[in-house]
Structure formats: structure tokens, C-alpha cells
Amino acid sequence: MTTTPASTVSIVLTTLGADADAASIARTLIDERLAACVNILPAMTSIYRWQGKVEQDREQQMVIKTASGRVADLQARLRQLHPYELPEFLVLDATGSEAYLAWVGESAR
């Protein structure tokens, strides 16, 4: 598995409340070509520290595949769409098959 700069892919992770409309956000990101694919995982329990207190909530994870060159634009747009004061925005560099990486690059252009 090799990559070229034109096919560099990032995976972005974010969480939303279990009742949030993740599908609507995902469709917006796809429609605006900020992402090639968004997976929305089933609700889970999240335990975290926020503003000095330990919190526990039901959340859903979004796994967003995008061209690495689109990460900054994706972050800006997700910040507009996201209901949280401080949204999770973790970026992971990805490797994979040339064909899949090319598809992501083409879809998130």
C-alpha cells in the first residue's frame, strides 16, 4: 500500500449527542465535498471530564473520510454545524489501497 500526495487521506473523528441528527451533518459534508464518506456508529456511553466535573452521556461517533487537503475546511464547516461548545476533532492519517485513496481524493475535492 503506497500513497501519493494527491491521494493522501485523513480520518476525522467527532462525537455528537445520541439524539443529534448526525445523518443531516453527514449529508451536508458529503454534499459540500468536504468528505467522501461518513460512518455514523450506534449510540455509546461516553465518560469524560468537562469544566471540572466528570460527566456521562450517550453519544454517537462519526468517522469521516476526507482528502487531507480538505481537513481545515472540514473543521471550519463542522464547527458551524456541530451543536457542542467544544466538538471533538481528531485527525488520523490513513494509508490504504491506491484505488480507495484515489476515490476519497476525488470525492472530497
Give the gist of this structure:
This protein is of the alpha+beta class and 109 residues long. Helices cover 28% and strands 37% of the residues. The chain has helices spanning 22-31, 71-81, 98-107; strands at residues 9-17, 37-40, 44-50, 53-67, 90-94.
Please describe what this structure looks like:
By secondary structure, the chain is α+β, with helices and mostly antiparallel strands. The protein has a single domain, classed as Alpha-Beta Plaits, CATH 3.30.70. The protein contains three helices and five strands. Strands 1, 2, 3, 4 and 5 form a five-stranded antiparallel beta sheet that branches. The longest helix is centred in the last third of the chain and has 11 residues, at 71-81. It is elongated and about 45 Å long. The chain starts with 8 loop residues before the first strand and ends with a helix. The relative contact order is 0.33. Residues 1-6 have low confidence and may be disordered.
Spell out the key features of this protein:
109 residues, 5-stranded antiparallel sheet, 3 helices, 5 strands, elongated
SSE blueprint and pairings:
Elements: E1 9-17, H1 22-31, E2 37-40, E3 44-50, E4 53-67, H2 71-81, E5 90-94, H3 98-107
